[in-house]
Each structure stands twice: as C-alpha cells, then as structure tokens.
Design goal:
CATH topology of the largest domain: Rossmann fold
Helix content: 10-25%
Organism: Lentzea atacamensis
Bound molecules: adenosine-5'-triphosphate
Number of helices: 9
GO molecular function: ATP binding
Structural class: alpha+beta
Oligomer: single chain
Protein name: Iron(III) transport system ATP-binding protein
Keywords: ATP-binding, Cell membrane, Ion transport, Iron, Iron transport, Membrane, Nucleotide-binding, Transport
CATH architecture of the largest domain: 3-Layer(aba) Sandwich
Number of strands: 20
InterPro entries: AAA+_ATPase, ABC_SmlMolc_Importer, ABC_transporter-like_ATP-bd, ABC_transporter-like_CS, ABC_transpr_FbpC, Mo/tungstate-bd_C_term_dom, P-loop_NTPase, Transp-assoc_OB_typ2
CATH class of the largest domain: Alpha Beta
Shape: globular
C-alpha cells in the first residue's frame, strides 16, 4: 500500500477543462473524501486516476511511481468500488472477489480472508442476485481490496442505499479500509458522508480544491463562505466586524476578522431559553434524532435552531434565543 499524490492536474472534454489545477495528497493508509456538487468533476477525477481518461497536464503519483497516460488501467495497481457495486452477475461472490487474483492466490485463502474482513464469511457460493444492496457493496469492496492495490477508489458507494443502512455501511467500510491498511479516495456530493467517513476532506469547486483539511476543520474553519455553505446548514447576515465582535440580529457576537462581510452561524449554535433575543416559533420540523425549530425575530429575520431531546416549544410560542460559541465571519473582497 502507498500514498497517492496529484499535482496540478488538468483534464476535461474537447479542450474544455473540468479539472483546472487539482492538487492533493492522500497519505499512505489514509482515506480522503473528495466532496463537491454535481458536475464539479468528481467522476472525471476518478476516471483520470483509474487511467480511463487522459490528462491534459499534471501528474499522478502512486507510491513513488508516476502514472503517465501510457500506464494502462490494469497495470496501475488501483482498485475500484463503483456506484451500486457492479458485481459480475454470472459469477458467485467468491468468483467476484477472486476475479483479479492468480489461481495460487485464490487457492491460498485470500478470498475467504477478504470475505471475513467485510463480514461475509460463508457467502462465497451465493450469486450477486441473492444479496442485499449493502452486502453487494461489501463484496465490491472485497473485490477491490483482494489484489492489494496501491489505492482504492470509491465512487459514491452508498448512494443507492437507504439512510439507515448507509450510515451502518459507512462505519463498516471505514473499519474495513483501516483493517486492510488501504489508502483510499472516495468521491461524494453528500457532505454528511464526506465529513463522517474520511480522515481528510478535499472540497472540489470550479475545477480546483477549495480546501483540503480534516473534516472538523472544514466544518468549523471553512476556507471561504462557499465552502462554509456547502458543508453544512447555515444562516448568514451582513455585518461589520470590529475589535473581535460583530453586531447581528441575534446580538453582538464574538468573531474574528475586520470590516464589512458576512456573518455565519450554524443552527446548533442557537439555544432556546429564558435569556436573549425575543422570537416567535414559526414551525417545528421533527427529524427523529433531533428537530429544527424555525423562528422569526422581531425585525422579521428568519433563523433556525437545532434541538436535541425533548422539544420545548411549538408553533406560535414566544421564546428567547441566545448564541453558543463565536460566529464565523467572511470579509467582503473590495
Ligand atoms: N463525456 C463527456 N463529454 C463532455 N462533457 C462531459 C462528459 N462527461 C462529463 N462531462 C462534463 O464534465 C463536467 C464534470 O462531470 P463529472 O461527471 O465529472 O461531474 P461529477 O462531479 O461526477 O457529477 P455528479 O456528481 O453529477 O456525478 C460536467 O459539466 C459534465 O457535463
């Protein structure tokens, strides 16, 4: 296993670049999530890395080896977990997992070792049509890991699964990749997925990496307003920051930055209680694990609070609002 380095990568279609200058590094044994909106070039990036799409310029290094366009896909040492698994339907589970292995490796117990790793011991004789969606994705992961690739690429691997299963499989895939010591790159448009699974997140926007950092850093210290809005729910207000604070419809809040700009708060920062700014509850959206309370301030500004546990209010109630922590502030560029 080995690290993956992408340097100044440019690629596109018909002379029109989609990836303009992409730079990142996945350390050996690390899991990087490339997060970006639909159409930003995630699939193109995977196709370039896998050797299915040419680069216009730039370099891809895998474990000290430069993967030029002359290195064909099968010689790259890259494993792929496609969307919805794409198992070979005419091969058994064992046949799928052993597909890229030599006869000696298949006989040496590698297939059983991988099935054990993904929690599917004893499933070798089943056909893909006899598996659930989650099981099929586990088999696809086992198949990708079997030849001990330098890096595993995962293309929105949970998108076809329902919410509960997605979360469970996410944890299992992370544990499996760790146990295998695999270096992995996952692409997704789902910020919760990217923040939840990866060691590092690269936010891809307009053909470049807008931020590359640990999930918590991307959420709490986003590189700019665009990243902040993309990685989580937020409320924004115009404001002027001065001397470590900024005036907002929710009162004067601590912040960093100076001058004109945009103040950003996350719904979990708004606390309902007896103190603070008066507001009226417009509605309560119950999500099961938590709830969003929609509120209106006296000046007409709409805000949202994320509430866990018992919901203390209902539509029409008057409640005071205070803010926990400091506000993010993004200065306007003149
Ligand atoms: N074969 C192609 N020919 C021309 N343009 C293409 C081709 N494939 C993709 N594109 C364009 O390249 C851009 C990036 O597409 P890509 O599929 O890489 O995005 P993505 O981030 O994977 O999107 P999604 O999340 O919707 O799958 C889009 O504007 C798309 O229209």
């Amino acid at each position: 296993m080995s690290g993956l380095t992408v340097k100044r990568l440019v690629a596109g279609y018909g002379g029109e670049p989609v990836l303009r200058e992409v730079d990142f590094e996945v350390p050996e044994g690390g899991l990087l999530a490339v997060l970006g909106p639909s159409g930003c070039g995630k699939t193109t990036l995977l196709r370039v890395l896998a050797g299915f799409h040419p680069v216009a310029s730039g370099e891809v290094w895998l474990g000290g080896r430069l993967l030029t366009s002359e290195v064909p896909p099968e010689k790259r040492g890259i494993g792929i977990v496609p969307q919805e698994g794409a198992l070979f339907p005419h091969l058994s589970v064992a046949g799928n997992v052993g597909f890229g292995l030599s006869r000696e490796e298949r006989r040496g117990g590698r297939v059983e070792e991988l099935l054990d790793l993904v929690g599917l011991s004893g499933f070798g004789a089943r056909m893909p049509g006899q598996l659930s969606g989650g099981q099929a994705q586990r088999v696809a992961l086992a198949r990708a890991l079997a030849p001990r690739p330098g890096v595993v690429l995962l293309d929105e691997p949970f998108s076809a699964l329902d919410a509960g299963l997605r979360e469970e499989l996410r944890a299992d895939v992370r544990a499996t990749l760790r146990a295998a010591g695999a270096t992995a790159l996952l692409v997704t448009h789902d910020q919760e997925e990217a923040l939840g699974i990866a060691d590092l997140v690269a936010v891809l926007r307009d053909g470049v990496v807008a931020q590359l950092a640990r999930p918590q850093t991307v959420y709490t210290s986003p590189a700019d307003l665009g990243v902040a809005l993309f990685v989580g729910e937020a409320m924004t207000f115009p404001g002027v920051a001065r001397g470590g604070s900024v005036e907002t419809p929710l009162g004067v809040l601590p912040t960093s930055g100076e001058g004109f700009g945009t103040v950003l708060l996350r719904p979990e920062q708004l606390v309902l209680g007896a103190h603070g700014v008066p507001s009226t509850v417009d509605d309560v959206l119950f999500h099961g694990h938590d709830a969003t309370v929609l509120l209106r301030l006296p000046d007409g500004t709409s805000v949202r609070s994320r509430v866990q546990g018992k919901i203390p209010v209902r539509a029409g109630d008057s409640v005071s609002l205070s803010v926990r922590g400091s506000a993010l502030f993004f200065g306007s560029t003149p």
